[in-house]
From TrEMBL:
UniProt domain DUF6194: residue ranges: 406-527
Family matches, as InterPro entries: DUF6194, Emycin_Estase, Hydrolase/PRTase-associated
GO BP of this protein: response to antibiotic
UniProt-recorded name of the protein: Erythromycin esterase homolog
One Pfam family linked to the record: DUF6194
Top-level taxon in the UniProt lineage: Bacteria
């Protein structure tokens, strides 16, 4: 990646045990894709594990898969909070599987989740975890089913709105917490026999299950505590991050002799200062202030904790426009990269109504070690989404080069070792006398071009590339956020979209991945 030098300089200077890289908005897929490419770089420099914002117990199945201990894995259950459905997650897991397959067990990269199996809106029943733990220990607990009761009593939607519906502080829940503690103690007391009868990996799985179910029951207890909605949300966020911090410290202890750990999550979970949440929900103003996992772990690890905050300058596909002048994001600039925190008493936080997006603030600037910034120039987020895909290389024509000035800033994306035929491009200028119909000379305008092939072209537009001339005059090529034939290269099977936005985001994602796979296959055949 273009910022590998800055990344390796930072890591080489600080030599962290935990490198935490945050993201400001879960809805921007550039960040998990950049995370994947960052991991690829770091494993060449001693990193041997990654921990992401996902349920730790569920993630054990994913690690079994990437270590080659199982032949398949269901990411919808192995990765929590819906992240398993994200293409970048599958790309990460597939890369780990392929990478580890070439290495000895000691050199393989371990996958960890470090989250709890909880959401603000609810949490699952502790029953399945307790039953699996009892089965491993060979314990018959006749009261377990009675204490757990119906699974739906733990997951009822009413719990979110009324603490009295939660069983979290019932006598049965207290008994379950006591049982879980007893099972964890027995796990350690009988460790020699259990490890001998099973394996260290099986024993560790049981240990993670015990820790997870104790944290889960603590979370249910917090859900049962009455208070205003803001008070309840604050307690739940604090309980979740306390579990995340405990998991990070445990993962670090497990991995310390193998190498540093790369951690990826929302900024709120990784920043050094307390986390704040303010929003309007169902007509109410809700706020919370709590210590995130980074705020807990950082003082315990000192300089061994390195925090790189995530920053998003602009992204048309998620509806985030250009940052205002004088904001931290604007000062960080148009380019994507890893930068030192901007300084200046005149800088201020950005104001936006994008739900779930956290702009940089003074506390983050003062306490982070660096910033991973997806730039604010037109097309920067799109470029990061493409360049973060597996084995993709980006070439950019720099301003002032010997190339024609109307090509300066244009980006070309290649699959594998191919440097002759891009599968996608991003351009920001009209080509006089040849390609002017998109009217790219206007401020902030750019165009994403994708080689989709003849068959997909016909499927999308209802006619083949060879028939494009008959339809060209009826098309408004300057219209934004609409997929249409490329104004100049449609006959070669190219499509384009000016200023991609929310309306075309999903289709663009599909077409880009299809184009990348086609290009990679073409390159593979060429090299045989």
């Amino acid at each position: 990646m273009v910022f590998d030098t800055a990344l390796l300089s930072l890591v080489g200077t600080r030599r962290p045990h935990l490198l935490a890289i945050g993201e400001p908005y879960h809805g921007e897929p550039a960040f998990p894709r950049l995370r994947n490419r960052i991991l690829e770089t770091l494993v060449g420099h001693g990193f041997r594990s990654i921990a992401i914002e996902s349920d730790r117990a569920a993630g054990l199945a994913v690690d079994d898969y990437v270590q080659g201990r199982r032949d398949e894995v269901d990411l919808s259950t192995g990765i929590s909070h819906g992240w398993g459905a994200h293409p970048a997650t599958r790309e990460l897991v597939d890369w780990l599987r392929e990478h580890n397959g070439k290495l000895s067990p000691a050199e393989r990269v371990t996958f960890h989740g470090f989250d709890a199996p909880t959401e603000i809106t609810g949490a699952p029943s502790p029953g399945p975890l307790l039953r699996e733990l009892c089965e491993y220990l060979g314990v018959t607990t006749t009261d377990l089913d009675r204490l757990v009761g119906g699974e739906d009593r733990w997951t009822a939607a009413e719990i979110m709105y009324d603490a009295s519906y939660s069983p979290g502080r019932s006598p049965e829940a207290a008994a379950l917490r006591g049982l879980a503690e007893d099972l964890r103690s027995r796990l350690y007391a009988d460790a020699p026999r259990l490890v001998g009868d099973t394996s260290p990996a099986a024993w560790n799985r049981a240990r993670v299950l015990a820790t997870t179910v104790i944290g889960l029951l603590t979370y249910h207890a917090a859900m049962a505590e009455p208070g205003t909605r803001s008070q309840r949300i604050e307690r739940l966020l604090a309980a979740r991050d306390a579990v995340m911090a405990q998991n990070l410290l445990d993962i670090l202890a497990m991995e310390r002799d193998r190498g540093p750990v790369l951690v990826s999550a929302n900024n709120a979970h990784l920043q050094r200062h307390p986390s704040r949440w303010d929003t309007h929900w169902e007509g109410q103003h809700l706020s919370a202030l709590w210590n995130g996992a980074g705020s807990i772990v950082s003082p315990l690890l000192g300089d061994r904790y390195l925090y790189v905050a995530g920053s998003l300058g602009a992204s048309g596909p998620v509806g985030l426009g250009q940052p205002e002048v004088g904001t931290y994001e604007e000062r960080l600039g148009p380019q994507t990269g890893i930068f030192a925190p901007p300084v200046g008493s005149d800088l201020r936080p950005r104001v936006t109504d994008l739900l779930g997006y956290s702009p940089l603030d003074a506390a983050t600037i003062e306490t982070c070690d660096a910033i991973l910034h997806v730039g604010s120039e037109p097309g920067a987020a799109d470029a990061a989404r493409i360049a973060g895909r597996p084995a993709v290389t980006e070439t950019r024509i720099e301003a002032g080069s010997e190339m024609p000035s109307h090509t300066w800033g244009d980006r070309f994306f290649f699959a594998g070792e191919d440097r002759m035929r891009p599968f996608a491009t991003i351009v920001g200028h009209d080509v006089p006398g040849f390609d002017e119909r998109s009217r790219l000379s206007g401020p902030g305008r750019y165009r994403l071009n994708i080689e989709i092939g003849r068959t997909e072209f016909r499927n999308l537009f209802g006619y083949g590339p060879e028939e494009f001339a008959a339809h060209r005059d009826g098309l408004d090529f300057a219209r934004t956020d609409r997929l249409m034939p490329h104004p100049a290269y449609a006959v070669q099977g190219w499509a384009s979209v000016v200023n991609p936005g929310p309306a075309t985001a999903d289709e663009v994602e599909r077409l880009l991945e299809r184009a990348r796979v086609r290009a990679a296959g073409r390159e593979h055949r060429r090299r045989r």
